[in-house]
Design goal:
203 residues; mainly alpha; Multidrug efflux transporter AcrB transmembrane fold; 7 helices; 80% helix
Length: 203
């Protein structure tokens, strides 16, 4: 519809607020990612470890967007806040998983039980199994706290549901990701190191 000369049209309300928020998010999300990467490297002192920890990020995003699609939620500021929170949770739990695997690997190494690839498999399996119970308890606690919010009613319920939806979807996918994929990646990394260490002995 053409406007008369001297008139203009400007969007207001929720649409205007979302546009302003998206401009801030274009800066906030990259800054958050950079800070997470730097903090992870500061703690791990290994870019490989940082890469493994961040491996869960795209998979948890898939879970987040699947649930958003299933619930028919559009992108909003609350959804983006939930996704940013999920970034921090991914980094934290991924690092803890690696600590369990590292601890069991170093324990076997100190005891002289890493003489072949079978010993390596056993050490990593033990580390992953020890993480299974605390990981399951953590996810169960998260779900007990977050799932009721999906059915919240009253003032602010719409915002709350959109904030927790990406968290629930992401945490669910990340649970299987960390228990099934992390040990395999860790095994491939340590297997290469073990072969390098054992090759002079074999020679």
């Amino acid at each position: 519809m053409l406007l008369p000369a001297g008139c203009s049209r400007e969007w207001a309300g929720t649409f205007e607020a979302l546009e302003r928020s998206e401009e801030r998010l274009l800066v906030l999300i990259p800054v958050t990612l950079v800070l997470i990467v730097l903090l992870l490297y500061w703690g791990a002192r290994s870019w490989f470890r940082v890469g493994v920890i961040l491996l869960a990020v795209p998979f948890s995003r898939i879970g987040a967007f699947w649930l958003l699609w299933a619930l028919d939620y559009d992108m909003s500021l609350a959804v983006w806040v939930g996704i940013i929170a999920l970034l921090g949770i991914d980094a934290e739990t991924g690092q803890i998983m690696l600590l369990y695997l590292d601890s069991e690997y170093e324990k076997a190494e100190r005891a002289g039980k890493l003489q072949n690839l079978s010993d390596l498999h056993h050490a990593i399996f033990q580390g992953a199994v020890k993480r299974l119970r605390p990981k399951s308890m953590t996810v169960a606690t998260d779900m007990i706290g977050l799932l009721p919010l999906l059915w919240a009613v009253g003032t602010g319920a719409d915002v709350t549901r959109r904030l927790v939806a990406p968290l629930i979807g992401g945490i669910t996918i990340r649970f299987f990701m960390e228990l099934l994929v992390y040990p395999v990646v860790f095994l491939l990394w340590k297997r290469r190191q073990l072969r390098t260490a054992l090759s002079p002995i074999a020679a």
